[in-house]
Write a structure and sequence with these properties.
alpha/beta, 24% strand, four-stranded mixed β-sheet, binds coenzyme A
Length: 323
């Protein structure tokens, strides 16, 4: 039976940075409020659209790992902020990087998107017809933010990251997973409303991102905790068998609560939210790239990592991956 192994990684962050102090110049907020409640100090903000960030991340990976784009069989992009409804971001990336043998699809599972996309890529590989799949998570959430709303606009940043998954038979890759959707709570995070607009009806609605922050916080600490435990128990592992927990970077207080409830050594939980804020589907590939680059993680090392993410839908998912 085939499994899928991580053989490449990259990330791309736009050069422009908005600090908390920058926000306090046009909103009734402060660095003290934002940092103490979220752990965020700054976020990158993009002048260009999602497909450009994803293409940049893809090109960095291809160059760094000396990959010919023609060996790619598929490109899966996790995003909830596509340039267009049609074409998909993945189709744009496929054209930009000249990966003409790759089929391309987008996955929208909000901030959980990268976990859902990695799981999907893993299943394509396990079916036997796909060998090399580029999985990208990228967002320009800034274009969906209402910059007069201090409760949401300070939380998000833009960026993209990529992972190359390759078919192998050495029992590495995703060894356990649990993905969940809680559609009854879909109103906790809402963004990008496009109403009916035709000869029969015209719907008005708020097009920007809105969030019930407290409800999201409670959802995450309750549902995600159970999701993580179940993912570990599926393969008879405990948190002590995990070398690094890599959580979606949404809020440092959520990460601390999860680590405490898991009784996880804090040194096993890496965070970069202070620098990048919540980059939604970009969050996990961006932080994974940083962890590979600072030698916390090593390709082929057989380290066990637990990826966990949550977001709009509401959705959540965890993966245990052996590198
Ligand atoms: N600056 C200053 N004050 C702010 C503020 C800001 N940026 N944002 C909100 N406030 C104010 C609110 O207006 C409110 O004021 P009021 O009491 O006068 O009405 C007060 O702070 C408390 O608001 P509340 O929303 O209850 O704060 P909180 O302690 O729950 O913290 C979050 C807000 C968003 C940081 C917190 O709920 C959270 O982290 N939720 C999870 C969000 C998340 O992770 N989303 C992404 C999921 S992928």
């Amino acid at each position: 039976m085939y499994t899928s192994k991580i053989v490449g990684h990259s990330s791309y962050l736009p050069e422009n940075i908005l600090t908390n102090d920058d926000f306090s110049k046009f909103l009734d907020t402060s660095d003290e409020w934002i940092y103490s409640r979220t752990g965020i100090k700054q976020r990158h903000v993009s002048k260009v659209n999602t497909s450009v960030l994803c293409t940049n991340a893809a090109n960095i990976l291809l160059e760094k790992f000396n990959i010919d784009p023609l060996i790619l069989d598929a490109i899966i992009v996790a995003t909830s902020t596509p340039d267009y409804t049609i074409p998909s971001v993945s189709a744009l990336v496929q054209g930009n990087i000249k990966a003409s043998n790759a089929m391309a699809i987008d996955i929208n599972s909000a901030c959980s998107g990268f976990v859902f996309a990695l799981s999907t890529a893993d299943k394509y590989i396990k079916c036997g017809n796909y060998k090399n799949i580029l999985v990208i998570g990228g967002e320009v959430t800034s274009k969906q933010l209402d910059y007069t709303d201090r409760t949401t606009s300070v939380l998000f940043g833009d960026g993209a990251g990529a992972i190359l998954l390759q078919r192998t038979d050495d029992n590495t890759g995703i060894i356990s997973e649990k993905l969940e959707t809680h559609g009854d709570k879909h109103d906790f995070i809402v963004s990008g409303f496009t109403g009916v607009n035709n000869t029969l009806n015209k719907e008005d609605g708020y097009p920007y991102l809105s969030m019930k922050g407290r409800d999201v916080f409670n959802f995450v600490t309750r549902v995600v905790m159970k999701n993580i435990i179940s993912t570990l128990e599926n393969v008879n592992l405990t948190i002590d068998d995990i070398d690094f927990v890599v959580p979606h970077q949404a809020n440092i207080r959520i990460i601390e609560v999860l680590a405490r409830k898991l009784k996880c050594d804090p040194s096993k939980v890496f965070t970069n939210i202070d620098k990048v804020a919540n980059t939604s589907a970009g969050s996990l590939p961006i932080i994974l790239d940083e962890m590979f680059n600072n030698d916390s993680l090593t390709l082929g090392s057989k380290q066990n990592i637990l990826l966990t993410a949550f977001g709009g839908g509401m959705s959540c998912g965890s993966l245990v991956i052996t590198l």
